[in-house]
Amino acid sequence: MTAAQPTAAMSGRYQRAYTIAVLFLVAGWHLAGAGGQLLHNRPAYSSFAFQCAMWLVMALAIIAGAVLVLRGEPGWLPAWAVAVTALAASTAAAAASPASQMLAVNWAWGSAGWIGVLVLLRRPFAELACFLAAEALATLGVQVWDGLNRADLAGFLAVLAWSTGAQVAIAMGVRALDIAARQADAAMRSEHAARDRAATAEIIRAARHARWLTLQESAVPLIAELAAGTADPGDAQVRIRCAVQAARLRRLLAEGDEVPGSLVHELHASADVAERRGVAVEIETAGVLPQVPGPARRVITDAAIAILTAARSRTRITLAAVTAGIAVSFVADTGASVGLPAAADGVAIEQQQDGRMLWAEARWNSP
Amino acid sequence: MEQPVTVAIIEDHPVVTEGVASWIQSDPAQRVRLVQTARDLTGLRAAPPADVVILDLELSGELVITQIPGLAAAGYRVVAFSGHSDPEIVMETLDNGAYAYVSKEEGRDHLVEAVLAAAADRPYVTRSQARAMLADQRPARPALSEQERQALLLWFQGMSKASVGRRMSISENTVRQYISRARAKYAATGRTAPSKDALLARAIEDGVIRPGDVTPYKSFARAETDHPSLSAPDR
Q1: Angle CA A301–A347–A203, to nearest 5
Q2: Are B175 and B161 in contact (CB under 8 A)?
Q3: Higher confidence at residue B80 or residue A280?
Q4: Model pLDDT for residues A122-166, shown as the tens digit of each residue
Q5: Are A51 and A34 in contact (CB under 8 A)?
Q6: CA separation, residue A339 to residues A247, A332, A342, B19 (Å)
Q7: What pairing do the DSSP bridges indicate for beta strands A314-322 and A280-286?
Q8: Residues of chain B contacting residue A352, judged by C-beta atoms under 8 Å apart
């Protein structure tokens, strides 16, 4: 049993078209081919009414099969219910035909086979093969029952060859077209994915370049001074500058990560260096936080880095949704006020020193 | 000296129970006395009587928030103590009639104070509670004044109440008033509980809130039917 596979829109449309083509073929055969034969051989049947009834049963089976296949890929139970109905009707019609002329006046064999093709088209091929074999065996069984002679057997094989052969050919053809449609679809999707990848790569490249520029103006001079020996690692000021640059590097790395709520993520990254220094950092949020644009986020995280670098043992960072924006606050035991970035990019910063504790708040209002 | 407040702890982890007991012990004035510990709600006994129940909200992996109204109806003052700090859980706990919500991180600094406040029917607002109030977007939430919101925000941010006062240019006592008033407004909304009525009545008695300040949100049908005499509790 195959599960219905999710097919993309395009291959789905093609497959539906093939289904409809097969449906027309089956209905056309039953109406013109089988129906015509039935009317033409009218006098030969012992009960014309019974043959007509079987023809109607098979017409109903075609309608049921059409509904099934147009709704999607049918499950094995409804598909086989329709197929077995067709098989039974065709066998009954054959059995009710005059013994000597059975093959000549048999209209039902072809129709039953086509109904099988219709409903089993997109099920494993072995199912269709089984059905067609059962159909052939049933017809042969009727002939054996009637008394088989050599000419009958030759006729049987001829009908089997052309009727079942055509049915198998159509089933295989549709299968091949299905595969082609799926391949076309996959190709189209991979082309889309390639275009998306190229666009993403361009965005990443631009972000990397921006980061490189940022490092040029902050970290690189410090490293140069350290290398040249003009900055002394024993100097507390130099150590603070190093801590700030380390935190900025972490933030730069975090800025590239695609994480929802990126401001919180970047603050965590900024806090990382302070935490390694033994500062306990808690970060809490209140309410549904708005998206803060990149430049404003950088002002806020710069303030965070300055405070975290100055904190002695603990810092509490909170982000709260406020009317039309966000309030990011810091409470830290810095012991003294801290040089914070100037208001920019829609972010206003305030601080208040209270004994050893510093409170600072960066407020961003959406424009 | 006043009689110490008696307290029972319902907590399924013995190590947490011991931690809470040690916080109670380390209170210099010994204002709280632990009289009972139980590992689940069925273990709580009527004697010796406990003024306040410290309830872990998650017992054997199950949230027991819905048991709070039963405890409140039986006359217990419940202080919730929980590892959760999800604002929705905080709000539901308060709505069910808990006096205060203390997250496990806040325990050391706030649990004893929250127990003492609950014993006196007074509000106590932890930072996790302030956070939940600030984040509250339910249509039935009470209307907080700008000053109350600002005091809650600064308190949530981690300032001491004295610092909040300096920041807002008001006295520390006024800061307490604003925060307590916000809490009392919450006691006036949602479902009824004897604990919430007691909290509200005490707030009115203390002058934290005036009866006219607690008109519940009109569109909230349940609040209307639950509080027929909200604006004048006669206790």
Answers
A1: 60
A2: yes
A3: B80
A4: 888 899 999 999 988 988 888 888 877 777 788 888 888 888 888
A5: no
A6: 16, 14, 9, 40
A7: parallel
A8: 163, 166-167
Interchain contact, A316 vs B137, CB within 8 Å: no
**A359·B153 Cβ contact <8 A:** no
Domain B5-226 class, CATH top level: alpha beta
Sequence spans of domains, chain A = 9-189, 219-365
Whether residue A318 and residue B156 make contact (CB cut-off 8 A), yes or no, is: yes
pLDDT > 60? residue B224: no
Residue in chain B lying closest to A353 (CA)? B163
With contact defined as beta carbons under 8 Å apart, do A116 and A135 qualify? yes
Q: Which residues in chain A are contacts of B162 at CB distance < 8 A?
A: 354
- What residues form DSSP beta bridges with B33? B6
CATH of A219-365, one of 3.40.50.720, 2.30.29.30, 3.30.1780.10, 3.30.565.10: 3.30.565.10
> Taking a C-beta distance cutoff of 8 angstroms, is the pair B194, B72 a contact?
yes
How many Å apart are CA B126 and CA A91, to the nearest integer? 84
**CA A292 to each of CA A210, A211, A264: distance values in angstroms, whole numbers, following the listed order:** 18, 19, 10
Residue A361, SS3? Answer: strand
Please say if the pLDDT value at position A170 is more than 70: yes
Which residues face A280 on adjacent strands?
A314
Q: What is the pTM of this model?
A: 0.59
Give the residue from A318, A323, A351, A361 with the most B CB atoms within 10 Å of its CB, the best one to mutate. A318
Q: Residue A354: which of B87, B127, B166 has the nearest Cβ? A: B166
Location of structure tokens 């302030």: B130
Q: Which residues on chain B are in Cβ contact (under 8 Å) with A324?
A: none
Output DSSP code: residue A174.
H
Nearest to B163 among A282, A287, A354 (CB): A354
Residues of B in contact with A357 (CB under 8 A): 159-160, 163
β-bridge mates for residue A360, sequence order = A330, A351
**Three-state SS for B158?**
coil
**Separation of alpha carbons A137 and A3, rounded Å:** 30
CA pair distance A309, A324, nearest whole angstrom: 30
For chain B, say whether A100 makes contact (Cβ under 8 Å): no
Confidence of residue B76 (pLDDT cuts 50, 70, 90): very high
Residue in chain B lying closest to A362 (CA) = B157
Summarize pLDDT for A225-241 with one digit per residue, the tens: 888 888 888 888 888 88
Q: Which residues of A touch B159 (CB under 8 A)?
A: 331, 354, 357, 359
Length of chain B: 235
Q: In this complex, how many residue pairs, one in chain A and one in chain B, have their CB atoms less than 8 Å apart?
A: 52
- Which of B157, B161, B167, B169 should be substituted to probe chain A, the one whose Cβ sees the most A Cβ atoms within 10 Å? B157
**pLDDT, tens digit (0-9, with 9 covering 90-100), for A309-361:** 999 888 999 999 998 899 999 999 998 888 888 888 899 999 999 889 999 99
Q: Which of A267, A317, A329 to mutate against chain B (most B CBs within 10 Å)? A: A329
